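Tokenised fold entry reproduced for absentees:

. . .
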Amino acid sequence: MTEKRRHRRSSIQLDIELIYPDGGSSRVKTRDLSISGLFVEAIGNQPPKLGTLLTVTFLSAPHQGGTYSLKARVQRLSLNGIAMTFIDFDLDDLRFIETILAGSS
């Protein structure tokens, strides 16, 4: 199978909170992270639908103080979890993700 991803993924487990458009939320762990998105472990019986826009709040990130939030779109659902792509991504967001990825190497 040919790899179609543009950015290398790093296996990293971080505590995050997914905030849904209706205001609900779920705490989950990342399984991997890249500059363009992330994969989170399964979150129970009611995963968001494809295309749903979520706020992803990083609760624990290496070398970071406090929390940090990014916008993401649900790209793929699997039995193991949810793949999301970051949207409305700016330079500060890029620096945040790069710092996490550098700390996990």
Remarks:
- The chain has a mean pLDDT of 87.
- The longest helix spans residues 91-104.
